[in-house]
C-alpha cells in the first residue's frame, strides 16, 4: 500500500485533514481579523489624518476654454423654451420665432475670467458607491514592513520557515549567481522569493478549467506586492468617504452673445423686436450659459477620468488638498480636467479638521472586513491553496505538496537595496530583479509559502517609512 503524502506540507504519513500546517494556516488567518480591528484606525489616521471637515470651505478655480459653447439637444431645447417665455407677449408664432432667434445667436466664453466656486462642508458619510471592499485594500492600509519582519525572523534563535526558504532557495542563488552586497538584506530577498512563487500558485489556479481562486488568496497575492510607497495600498478618501455640503457660485466666466444675419432674422420674424427685448433675451441667455458652466464645473473630476466613475468632485478636492497626497502623487494643486468647457482646475481654501481617523468611513471598512474574515470563510483555506497549487500538465509547479526541481522564478527588488551582480565585464552592477533556481534538495512546500505570508500579515509591524 502506498504511503500517504500530504499535498499541503509535502510530508509523508498523513493527509491534509490531519496536517499540522493546515491547522496553523487556519490559526494565522484568524489572527488577521483582530489585527485589522486593532490597527486599521491607526493606519488610516497615518494615511489620511482627518476626522471631520465640518465648516471647511473648499475653493475651486476652473479655467474655461474660450470660444463658442456647443449645446446638446436637450440644452438647445431648454434654451429655446427660455426664449419662448421672453417673446410670448410679442410673437404670433412663439416657437417658430424662438427657433429662429436661437439659430441666429452665438454664445461664446470670453477669455480672461475663470469660473470660481466653493463648497461648504456640513458632514461626511461612508461612500456606498465603493460598497465592495477587497481585503487587500484593508491589509494594504497597514503598510506592513515585510522585509523588516522577515529579517528579524532570520535573525531569531529558533528555526522557522523563513530560515528554510533562505537556506534552500535564496542563498544558493545568491552565491551561484555571483551576487554581492546582500548581507543584512536577506529579509527583502526572501520576500521577493515569496512574491515569485505565490505567482506560481496563481498561474496554477488560472490554468484550471474552473476558477479555484478564493477572495482570500487574491487578497494575499495583491497585498504582498505592495510596499509603503505603493499608491494602491493607500487609504483614499474619495473611495470611502462622501462629503455633504453646499456649492456656491462665486464667479462666472464672461459670456458674449452675438447675432448672425440680422437682416434675414428681422425679415423672417413675425414681430419687430425692440432693443429692450433683445437685451432682455441676451441677459437671460447669459444667465443660462453661466448656470450651465457652474453645473459642469461641479460635476468634473480632477484627474481626467483616472479616479473612476461616480466619485464626487468634492472628495477629490479634499484628497487633492491634503499635503501627504500632494507629496505621494507628485502633483501640485492644479490639475487637468475632462470637460468640453474647461481646461484645468486649481484647488484652494481652508480645511478645518480634527486630527484622528475618519470615524464613519473607518467603521464601515472594519465592518466589511469583519464579514470577510469570519471563521467560516477561512476554515478551508488550506484546501483552497492545495487546489490552486496543483494544476497538472506543463504548468505544474508543485508535486505532492513540494516545489518541483527546475520550477524557477524571478521577482523585482528595490534598486535602493543596492544588491549587485557581476555582469559580462565582471563589474558589479545594481540589479532590480533576481532569479531563483531550485536545487534537487529543495523541500519547500505550499504550506511554507502560504504560512510565511500569513504570519507577516498577522504579526509584522507597520512600516515607519515616511512618504517620499
Walk me through what this model shows.
The chain has helices at residues 20-47, 73-87, 94-103, 135-141, 146-154, 161-176, 186-206, 215-224, 237-240, 262-268, 275-299, 313-321, 323-329, 359-372, 375-378, 381-389, 446-459, and strands at residues 57-64, 67-68, 105-109, 115-126, 179-180, 241-251, 255-259, 334-336, 342-350, 398-399, 402-403, 409-412, 420-422, 428-430, 433-436. With 468 residues, it is an alpha+beta fold. It has two domains: 16-48 and 142-234 and 373-459, no CATH class; 57-129 and 237-360, no CATH class. It has a five-stranded antiparallel β-sheet. A three-stranded antiparallel β-sheet has the order 2-3-7. A three-stranded antiparallel β-sheet has the order 5-13-14. The longest helix is centred in the first third of the chain and has 28 residues, at 20-47. It is elongated. Residues 302-311 and 324-331 have low confidence and may be disordered.
Amino acid at each position: 500500500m502506498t504511503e500517504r503524502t500530504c499535498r499541503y506540507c509535502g510530508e509523508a504519513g498523513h493527509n491534509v485533514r490531519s496536517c499540522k500546517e493546515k491547522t496553523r494556516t487556519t490559526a494565522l488567518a484568524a489572527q488577521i481579523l483582530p489585527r485589522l480591528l486593532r490597527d486599521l484606525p491607526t493606519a488610516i489616521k497615518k494615511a489620511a489624518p482627518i476626522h471631520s471637515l465640518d465648516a471647511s470651505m473648499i475653493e475651486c478655480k476652473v479655467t474655461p476654454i474660450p470660444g463658442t459653447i456647443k449645446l446638446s439637444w436637450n440644452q438647445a431645447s431648454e434654451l429655446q423654451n427660455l426664449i419662448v417665455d421672453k417673446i410670448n407677449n410679442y410673437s404670433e408664432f412663439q416657437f417658430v420665432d424662438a427657433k429662429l432667434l436661437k439659430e441666429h445667436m452665438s454664445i461664446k466664453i470670453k477669455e480672461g475670467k475663470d469660473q470660481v466656486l466653493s463648497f461648504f462642508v456640513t458632514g461626511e458619510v461612508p461612500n456606498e458607491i465603493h460598497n465592495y471592499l477587497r481585503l487587500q485594500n484593508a491589509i494594504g492600509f497597514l503598510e506592513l514592513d515585510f522585509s523588516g519582519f522577515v529579517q528579524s525572523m532570520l535573525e531569531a534563535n529558533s528555526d522557522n520557515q523563513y530560515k528554510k526558504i533562505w537556506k534552500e532557495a535564496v542563498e544558493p542563488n545568491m552565491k551561484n549567481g555571483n551576487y554581492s552586497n546582500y548581507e543584512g538584506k536577506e529579509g527583502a530577498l526572501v520576500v521577493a522569493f515569496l512574491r515569485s512563487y505565490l505567482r506560481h500558485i496563481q498561474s496554477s489556479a488560472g490554468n484550471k478549467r474552473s476558477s479555484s481562486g478564493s477572495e482570500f488568496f487574491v487578497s494575499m497575492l495583491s497585498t504582498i506586492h505592495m510596499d509603503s510607497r505603493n499608491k494602491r495600498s493607500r487609504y483614499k478618501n474619495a473611495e470611502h468617504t462622501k462629503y455633504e455640503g453646499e456649492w456656491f457660485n462665486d464667479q462666472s466666466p464672461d459670456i458674449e452673445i452675438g447675432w448672425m444675419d440680422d437682416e434675414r432674422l428681422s425679415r423672417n420674424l413675425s414681430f419687430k423686436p425692440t432693443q429692450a427685448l433683445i437685451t432682455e433675451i441676451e441677459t437671460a441667455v447669459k444667465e443660462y450659459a453661466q448656470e450651465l458652466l457652474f453645473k459642469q464645473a461641479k460635476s468634473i473630476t480632477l484627474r481626467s477620468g483616472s479616479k473612476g466613475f461616480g466619485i464626487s468632485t468634492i472628495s477629490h478636492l479634499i484628497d487633492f488638498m491634503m499635503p501627504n497626497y500632494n507629496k505621494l502623487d507628485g502633483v501640485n494643486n492644479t490639475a487637468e480636467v475632462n470637460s468640453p468647457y474647461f481646461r484645468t482646475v486649481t484647488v484652494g481654501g481652508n480645511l478645518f479638521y480634527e486630527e484622528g481617523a475618519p470615524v464613519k468611513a473607518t467603521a464601515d471598512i472594519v465592518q466589511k472586513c469583519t464579514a470577510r474574515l469570519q471563521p467560516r470563510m477561512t476554515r478551508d483555506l488550506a484546501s483552497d491553496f492545495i487546489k490552486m497549487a496543483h494544476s497538472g500538465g506543463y504548468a505544474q509547479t508543485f508535486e505532492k505538496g513540494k516545489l518541483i526541481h527546475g520550477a524557477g522564478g524571478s521577482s523585482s527588488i528595490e534598486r535602493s537595496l543596492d544588491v549587485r551582480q557581476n555582469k559580462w565585464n565582471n563589474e558589479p552592477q545594481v540589479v532590480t530583479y533576481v532569479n531563483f533556481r531550485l536545487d534537487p534538495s529543495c523541500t519547500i512546500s505550499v504550506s511554507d509559502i502560504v504560512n510565511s505570508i500569513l504570519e507577516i500579515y498577522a504579526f509584522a509591524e507597520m512600516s515607519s517609512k515616511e512618504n517620499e
